[in-house]
Amino acid sequence: MEEIDRRIVTLLARDGRMSFTDLARETGLSVSAVHQRVRRLEKRGVVRGYAAIIDHDAIGLPLTAFVSIKPIDPAAPDDAPERLAHLTAIEACHSVAGDESYILKVRVASPVALEDLLQQIRAAANVSTRTTVVLSTPYEHRAPDVTAEPAPIQEGSA
Question: I want to staple 68 with a disulfide (CB 3.0 to 4.6 A). Which of 78, 100, 110, 158 is the partner?
């Protein structure tokens, strides 16, 4: 990816509503050149969409938790994401290495709602759960700085 495209991606990650005029000013390109580059980044799938960042407290979902799940029967099909897709309290589902198979990020209204959701998760996917409740979130939704060059991989590193 060209350096100027990296700069555009970094700026859009920080503010997805940044105008083409502002992007042009920040990158030193013309508005039409920025417009073309953004459209090309969207077409290539580098920029996959734009989203609002919601204040979950304001909409009545103040409790965030991470729920690690592990199948009760290790021989069962690995279909937990499909079995849990209907549960809208699950904000994210990450396949992970380690003891558990997936880590779910969930948002609910209360501890009672979390307990109910955990029962639904266990029943729907036939899994055991381990839950970590979030006490506070100092930062989230941090924009990546793709203008920085990736660190070289050294031999013998894992």
Answer: 100
Please give the backbone phi and psi of residue 133, each rounded to the nearest 5 degrees, phi first: -90, 135
Q: Are 133 and 114 in contact (CB under 8 A)?
A: yes
What tokens does 154 get? 């050294």
Other C-beta atoms lying within 10 Å of the C-beta of residue 100: 19
Label residue 147 by pLDDT band (50, 70, 90).
Answer: confident
How many residues does the structure list for the chain? 158
pTM over 0.85: no
Among candidate residues 112, 81, 106, 113, the one with its CA nearest the CA of residue 96: 81
Report the alpha-carbon distance of residue 30 to residue 34 in Å, rounded. 6
